Amino acid sequence: MSGTDDSDRLIQEVLSELGWDEDPKTIANKVRQLDQGLPAEDEFTAICSWLGRARLVHKLDQHQAPVASRFLYQVPDLLAEFEHGGPVLIEVKSKTKPKLSFTPRYLDRLHAYAQLVNMPLLIAWKLHGIWVLFEVKHLTKAKKNFNITFGDAMKENLLGILAGDVSYKIASGAGLRFRCRKEELVSRRETDGTVTEQWQMRIDEVGFMISGGRPAEHLDPDVTTLFTTWDLSEEQSHSDTHIELRFVAGDDDGMMFGHMALTHLLHWHLPQGATINWRHAIRRDAVVSNMTNFGRALERALEQKVVHLILHQQPHTWPSFLPREEVNTTGPSPRADQDTPAEQQGSAS
């Protein structure tokens, strides 16, 4: 669908709701709100599209008739089909508390719709920027509602085996460097024993580094793009003639989920303080333009010693709708580069 066609559809949708006699300013504001989309649903759709294993992610229309059907059925937010397992229904939630809760009545209506179309029902939940995807059966009855903690949801996370999500770590010392030649001292000031200098400089060398800070040449473009997903630390070294700036991953850096890397990549192109329009992202030919295939980029980064660890999570309870033999679960998990000591390779289960 072209941008023009999409805009026409938005205007038509608003006019059908508000009527032709509505104030033009009200119509414009409503179109603008719709153009922003439903951030959680659109973000999850973008993530599944970008991770590479989704064949279809389709937003389901919440308008249903007759009106009485709303007391029996609750249409979930999305219908998705991944490479393995057949189509599934997904209800999307974004919460700020580490416990997700559904009323029995709401859950019954979701179940009724899933049974009507004979599809598995999954819950996608975002908490503080981290997404999990789990089967609805893992909700447990409390006094009134059905609940699940984020920790339990993470144990049953299907985002990896269905959508292709992983966790990864940039190798310590990997990053980029700038070698700047001092050309002219502009000013020098000493205050309380501290010397402050300003130099006119010229960059005479730019390069990338792999594990251990070793210089690297001919890294794949997608591999170097991975550096934009990481919070690199700045280091400086000074000589009489040069200042060298290095932006590197540290020893104590944690892991990064693949789906969180997408947010970093999209923010990279935005002005400071701007927010991501997820609706626009999912309507582009590619969610991001500066990385062609995230999974392959990680594999190449592991080979080129920019990434030193990749974790492939599997759920504690294997879903019945997904035959194990359809999913490649063989091979080392996690995967680590050859320089990683065995005692650091951990477990991904």
TrEMBL record:
<dbReference type="InterPro" id="IPR011856">
    <property type="entry name" value="tRNA_endonuc-like_dom_sf"/>
</dbReference>
<dbReference type="GO" id="GO:0003676">
    <property type="term" value="F:nucleic acid binding"/>
</dbReference>
<feature type="region of interest" description="Disordered">
    <location>
        <begin position="320"/>
        <end position="349"/>
    </location>
</feature>
<protein>
    <recommendedName>
        <fullName>Restriction endonuclease</fullName>
    </recommendedName>
</protein>
<dbReference type="InterPro" id="IPR011335">
    <property type="entry name" value="Restrct_endonuc-II-like"/>
</dbReference>
